[in-house]
């Protein structure tokens, strides 16, 4: 480490954190000072639109919405893994091709399972 004390290495990080905190606080204070504040009865209701509530917000959603959301996340992650693979495809050779094929096969099996369970229905 040298003759330099360890806490001195953290001074730039502390300064950066203080600048970030100060920027956030100054932004909030300036926004609070500049914004117009004209509250009226409709604005003070739970929903600013003033529309009356017609039912409870805590309703039960069908399970297929969650499955579709999970499939969306999984296929997004697949794309994140495929970009670096495509960049170094020639260096990986046959082993890289087999590994990516296995990765895609696992995702296809999951997609097929969700489709067979009825979570994916195109009306």
Automatic annotation (TrEMBL):
Its EC number is 7.1.1.-. The chain crosses the membrane at residues 12-34, 65-86, 92-115. GO terms for molecular function: NADH dehydrogenase (quinone) (non-electrogenic) activity. It is a multi-pass membrane protein. It catalyses: a quinone + NADH + 5 H(+)(in) = a quinol + NAD(+) + 4 H(+)(out). Keywords: Cell membrane, Membrane, NAD, Oxidoreductase, Quinone, Translocase, Transmembrane, Transmembrane helix, Transport, Ubiquinone. It is an enzyme of class 7 (translocase). Its main location: membrane. It comes from the Bacteria. The keyword Oxidoreductase applies. It is found in: Cell membrane; Membrane. PANTHER family: NADH-UBIQUINONE OXIDOREDUCTASE CHAIN 3. NDH-1 is composed of 14 different subunits. Subunits NuoA, H, J, K, L, M, N constitute the membrane sector of the complex. Belongs to the complex I subunit 3 family. NDH-1 shuttles electrons from NADH, via FMN and iron-sulfur (Fe-S) centers, to quinones in the respiratory chain. The immediate electron acceptor for the enzyme in this species is believed to be ubiquinone. Couples the redox reaction to proton translocation (for every two electrons transferred, four hydrogen ions are translocated across the cytoplasmic membrane), and thus conserves the redox energy in a proton gradient. This is NADH-quinone oxidoreductase subunit A. It comes from Candidatus Nitronereus thalassa. The gene is ndhC.
């Amino acid at each position: 480490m040298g003759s330099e004390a360890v806490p001195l290495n953290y001074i730039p990080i502390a300064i950066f954190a203080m600048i970030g905190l100060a920027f956030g606080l100054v932004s909030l204070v300036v926004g609070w000072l500049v914004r117009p504040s004209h509250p009226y009865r409709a604005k003070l209701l739970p929903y600013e639109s003033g529309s009356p509530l017609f039912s409870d917000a805590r309703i039960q959603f069908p399970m297929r919405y969650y499955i579709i959301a999970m499939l969306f996340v999984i296929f997004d992650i697949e794309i994140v893994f495929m970009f670096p693979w495509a960049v170094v495809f020639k260096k990986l050779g046959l082993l890289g091709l087999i590994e990516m094929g296995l990765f895609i096969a696992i995702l296809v099996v999951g997609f097929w399972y969700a489709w067979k369970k009825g979570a994916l229905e195109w009306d």
